[in-house]
Design brief:
about 280 residues, mainly alpha, 12 helices, globular, transmembrane
């Protein structure tokens, strides 16, 4: 039964991590109705570390864009001998600098206030309110800015200033679960003229260091607390991560195809409906 629950959590993580509907919010809400038979310390780690499966999906799909190096060959003067050299791909260094810059605000907030954020906001009602507020914001942005012709249509066109602004929007999601990291960064990017497709792609790239760092932080805290993972808990974590990876592969490809012809309005209405439903159920 616990394996089936882990699969369910993996499916929810894989679907909601990349759609702008808040994976953390859905995980908190799912935990409210479907409880894993694990320790509270393990659960706090599990709901974050399961994201590693989703991260791996991004790395696999976008490997050619994310891997910053390429191999070049140089020949000797007589042309008989050649040597291979590892060098940066054109534009790769600048792209990764922008990604790191955009991640700094959320990283600082996460490290400094992680426990306080858990205490204050990791509850169904704050999550429901965040779902509704950001859902309404999506609807408003799509009906105003979303109709404009984007001024940034490639990753290379994202400036350092633009990366910082997107990073600040990501910080909101780091503080308020239910906001959605992808939702916050996509809304912020669209507001400053980034196309939907590039906004989604850059959001995926930001996820790699952000989610890896968040997972590492939770694992370190778990270990420092002197808590030992049981064999069953280890299996649950593995199953959840593998499921999240497989589902994420499908969802990322779906989203990149979907936004070529559609906007994000439907996700806004979904967020509002879910938030209202949660509040009504908890009355």
């Amino acid at each position: 039964m616990e394996i089936l629950k882990a699969i369910l959590f993996g499916i929810v993580e894989g679907v909601t991590e990349w759609l702008p509907v808040s994976s953390t919010g859905h995980m908190i809400l799912l935990d409210h109705f479907v409880k894993l038979n694990v320790s509270s310390d393990f659960w706090k780690m599990f709901e974050v570390v399961i994201q590693l499966g989703a991260i791996l999906a991004v790395v696999v799909i976008f490997w050619n864009k994310l891997w910053p190096f390429t191999i070049s060959k140089t020949s000797s003067i007589n042309g008989n001998d050649s040597a291979k050299h590892l060098r940066w791909k054109e534009g790769a260094f600048a792209m990764w600098v922008k990604i790191i810059i955009a991640c700094v605000p959320a990283a600082v907030i996460g490290v400094a206030f992680d426990d306080k954020i858990d205490e204050l906001f990791y509850h169904p009602i704050p999550v429901a309110l965040a779902l509704i507020i950001v859902g309404l914001l999506f609807i408003i942005v799509e009906h105003t800015k979303g109709k404009n012709e984007p001024t940034i249509t490639s990753i290379a066109e994202i400036t350092y200033q633009t990366a910082i602004i997107i990073g600040l929007f990501q910080t909101v999601a780091a503080v308020f679960p239910g906001t959605s990291r992808s939702g916050a960064t996509i809304v912020g990017a669209i507001l400053i003229g980034v196309s939907r497709e590039i906004a989604a792609e850059f959001t995926f790239f930001l996820a790699v260091p952000v989610m890896f760092g968040a997972s590492l932080l939770k694992v370190v805290k778990f270990v420092k607390a002197g808590v030992h993972m049981t064999q069953n808990e280890g299996i649950i974590l593995l199953v959840g991560c593998v499921t999240a990876f497989l589902v994420s592969i499908v969802i990322i490809k779906f989203l990149m195809s979907y936004i070529k012809k559609h906007d994000f309005t439907i996700f806004g209405w979904y967020r509002v409906a879910l938030g209202i439903a949660v509040i009504l159920m908890l009355r």
